[in-house]
Amino acid sequence: MLFHFRHQFPQLNAYWDKYLPFQQRLEIPPKTTLLEEGKRSQHYIYIEKGLIRAFFNKNGEDITMQFFFENEGLSSFDSFINNTPSPITIETIEPSVVYLLAKEHVNQLLEDLSHEQDFVQMILRMTVQRQTHYINEFVSFIRDTPEQRYQNLVKERPHIIQRVPQHFIASYLGVSKVHLSRIKAKLAKGKSHF
């Protein structure tokens, strides 16, 4: 939401420094739950190192919605802003270093930022960028086949293919691990003909 846009908005660096004492730095192993589905989100999470996924449970099966990497931030935003139960679980995949900023300090940070000259434009750009990403994901899930979605990952976000375990990628694509193996074998076979 905020600090992972520091490279685009250098003026955020001063706020990072100011709010660093209020951030809880955690070095945590894989499979650490940072927010559980059904609980209320009370922290903004910034990833210094590692890999995190957001997922929900459907009839006992985890459905992965999104992956987050270094220098990205996240929360269950509806839950965070509206104080409602989170529809997702947030969990580490790799050993990770994260910073947690409590809701009260996020609100104070936003109040501080509101005095910045380009605050509204900055928030709009952040929101549009995130919204565009999610809309593209949603459209792709409806329009594209799992094979096309996998090819898009390979082409546009190869870091996911390189770092995320296969069963999470399968869940993210909405297919079984066996189906994902078939997709990969078919694509590898197609390449070998050239």
Outline of this structure?
This protein is an alpha+beta fold. The protein has eight helices and eight strands, in the order H-E-E-E-E-E-E-H-E-E-H-H-H-H-H-H. GO terms for molecular function: kinase activity.
Q: Low-confidence stretches at least 5 residues in length (pLDDT < 50)?
A: none
> What is the name of the CATH class of the domain at 3-117?
Mainly Beta
**Would you tell me the structural class of the helices and strands?**
alpha+beta
CATH fold call of the domain at 3-117: Jelly Rolls
Oligomeric assembly? single chain
Rg, nearest Å? 18 Å
The SSE string, one letter per element, is HEEEEEEHEEHHHHHH
Task: Give the spatial strand order of the biggest sheet.
Answer: 1-8-3-6
The percentage helix is 40-55%
Number of strands: 8
Second rung of CATH, namely the architecture of the domain at 3-117: Sandwich
Measured by DSSP, the beta-strand proportion falls in 15-25%
Terminal Cα span? 44 Å
Q: Count of helices?
A: 8
Taking the sheet with the most strands, its summary is: 4 strands, antiparallel
Write down the overall mean pLDDT: 89
CATH superfamily of the domain at 3-117: Jelly Rolls
Shape designation: globular
